[in-house]
Amino acid sequence: MEISEAEFAVTTADGFEAFLDSRNEPEWLQQKRRDAFALYEDYSKKDLDPEEFRRLDLRLFRPNDYRIRSTGDDSSAAGQFNNLMTERGEFAGQVAHIDGKPVQSQVQAELTEKGVIFCSLAEAVENHPELVQKHLLTQAVQPDTDRFSAWHAAFWTGGVFLYVPRNVELTQPLHSLIGLSRSGTADFSHTLVVLEDGARATLLEETSSADANAAGMHMGAIELIVGAGAHLAYVQLQTWNERVFHFAHQCGRVAQDGSLQWTVSALGSKFSHVHQDVMLDGKGANAQVNGVAFATDRQKLSYYTRQAHKAPHTTSDLLYKEVVRDRARMIWRGMIDVDEVAQLTDGYQRNDSLILSRDARVDAIPGLEINADDVRCTHAATAGQVDEEQILYCLSRGISRQEAMHVIVEGFFSQVFDRIPVELVRHTLSQTVQEKLGFGLED
Amino acid sequence: MNALLKIEDLHVNVGETEILKGVNLEIRQGEIHALMGPNGSGKSTLAYTLIGHPKYEVTKGRIEIDGVELNEMDPSDRARLGMFLAFQYPVTIPGVKVADFLRLALSNVRNPDRKEGESLISMREFRTELRETMKQLNMDSSFATRYLNEGFSGGEKKRMEILQLALLKPKFALLDETDSGLDSDAVRVVSEGLSKLAGPEMGVLIITHHERLLEYNEPQFTHVMLAGKIVETGDASLAHELHANGYDSIRKRHPEEAAWEEQQQETAAK
After folding, report:
1. How many domains does the structure of chain A reveal?
2. Of A250, A281, A312, which one is at a domain's C-terminal end?
3. A410 interface with B at CB cutoff 8 Å
4. Segments forming the whole domain that contains residue A158
5. B93:A407 CB<8 A
6. Which of A401, A412, A438 shows the shortest C-beta gap to B76?
7. Amino acid A402: pLDDT
8. A211 Cα to chain B: minimum distance (Å)
9. Which of A247, A281, A315 is the last residue of a domain?
């Protein structure tokens, strides 16, 4: 069946109205989008935060070059992806989006019987509107944060919805793929995860490009809502090609005695600017944040992390490790915020970087803002280069220079890999790092 | 036939400074050589030059194994040809497990034509071999899962070097002060380890100030270095004599080199 193709500009009022018309959505949602677009227009008239964008040059980003597509090229599209995990893993459910359009959605029947929902966000709007309305862009990511959050809230298209009812525990992980396929596509995917009290789940998500040369943009958002005593492990493996602009607001909220283990891997994209916030809302809430970043060529990756302690006895532990090579640049800005009420908080952040070439650069800027008086908050940042003596030592044992680099880089990452409980993820990350090391070393 | 490591009129610079000033030495597989000499005479420079450390520049002369010239060869290829150095100060490689490192090294040395990414020796075969070798050297099996040299004591680091020597089975093993900085128990452990390994398949060059390593591994040849040259060669008794009496008699017998040495020390002091 031939479906006529529609494309929507993502910056103009005309484009927005046409986009709205193409969506068969309830009025509350359409109104939400209109409000967000109005915010986007307001923000677009204003300058971006000069402090935040001091190190980020957006001149090369031309949003008018990208379009939302109402129909995707979904002919066996999922098969074109280097989706590293699906080949090896066994999952309780899988959802895939290509160019913002859902192409696959399945979940084990026994989970559905227990009330678990795992599907595309568009399906969830249709079948579970009350759940979506309650949680979508209300508690975690706020549309009025800045131009990018408003933009996303106006145009979000694809995305995944996971809902786990009270005290339901998933033992097998779930998998989500968000793919870009055709050049010039704008992807506005949204990930919304809601775990009710006492629930447990693991979600592995990949964002990836089918075509190494297809330019694209991703204006995403991730919302992870973890109920009291619930536990969520969420992994995002970002391997866009080096022609994708990646923006995202990501936020996790953890209620009393809940825990969130969040692993981010930043390997792809031409340019990334990501806000990753964890909010510890309930007494005894805990978050572990792991970051693995590897930037090469002219990639520019910027991650702003925030650990917000909003209740007593909350703990957070962030470890980011990044490797930069060639002319790549990595920016990490980390913040621990402790509210007045959040006594007996334990907040930790650590950032280590390894710089493989002279022209590569890392800016690591840790920060603390503490308003309670009985807390333990520590931070540390280190930066170093690969020691030639380490390379020589490897060479002297018959290991080639390239393998020596791999050994040293993998060793550098191992401290953060060791914290990731899912073997499949560790293995996938290790392999991705190896592939990335495989080119460009000769010069 | 036994392989031959041949060093001919070797001159080596570090930066602008000439450290080795014409070294001649031949080592055959199966032989044990001791290399002695005062600090700064060039012993470690010779060892590093032989394995291809990029800081040491050969300005003249030739290094070869069975006629194959090593002068321009990459350190990794030299290792695959059978050259090994037990480092005086082994580096730490954080996050890299001893077993993983050794498996990679062994895969390359066993299969010198191996390219990056090609398959490694089988895990089962490797594990068995590693376990047996560690047992032979009285090493605790927990070593294998530790990160390479991270948090190792001086003695543990040296034993790790000996373990690598045992696994890689090089044709030529250079030991750079493997006995320094260790207490006497540790020296005994390392010395016994080496004596188990040295045999007809291995040529050994022991660089040392001490005698202990040589008690367990009696050299057929003792060479004395002074100011970048091998000035005397004798048998094991020369090593004993130098250990007992120091290098004054050597300096007396070789006034020209002794003068260079003095000059060098004065320059270094400035």
Report:
1. 2
2. A281
3. yes
4. 7-281
5. yes
6. A401
7. 85
8. 24
9. A281
Name the residue facing A389 among B52, B91, B148 (closest C-beta): B91
Domain B4-91+171-269, classified CATH 3.50.50.60, yes or no = no
Per-residue pLDDT tens over the stretch B85-117: 999 999 999 999 999 999 999 999 999 999 887
Q: Phi/psi of residue A417, each to 5°?
A: -60, -40
Q: What is the pLDDT of residue B44?
A: 95
Span A194-237, pLDDT tens digits: 999 999 999 999 999 988 899 999 999 999 999 999 999 999 99
B95 and A400 within 8 Å at the Cβ level: the answer is no
Residue A363 lies in a domain: no
Q: Which residues on A lie below 8 Å from B78 (Cβ)? A: 396
Q: Enumerate the residues of chain B whose CB falls inside 8 A of the CB of residue A397.
A: 79, 101, 105, 108-109, 164, 168
Distances from the Cα of B231 to the Cα of B23, B174, B214, B242, B261, angstroms = 9, 20, 20, 13, 13
Q: State the pLDDT confidence band at A6, using cuts at 50, 70 and 90.
A: confident
ipTM for the complex?
0.95
Is the residue at A89 inside a domain?
yes
Residue for token pair 């506005």: A188
Over residues A156-172, mean pLDDT: 96
Indicate whether B14 pLDDT > 90: yes
Give the strand order in the sheet containing B17-28.
B17-28, B4-14, B57-65, B68-69
A340 within domain boundaries: no
Q: Do B116 and A400 touch (CB under 8 A)?
A: yes
Residue A177 domain-assigned? yes
Q: Which residues pair with A335 in a beta bridge?
A: A306, A367
Distance, in angstroms, between B107 CA and closest chain A CA?
Answer: 9
d(CA A15, CA A17) in angstroms, rounded, equals 6
- Measured between alpha carbons, how far is A93 from A400 in angstroms, rounded to an integer? 41
Identify whether residues A130 and A266 lie together within a single domain.
yes
Beta carbons of B95 and A414 less than 8 Å apart: yes
pTM here is 0.84
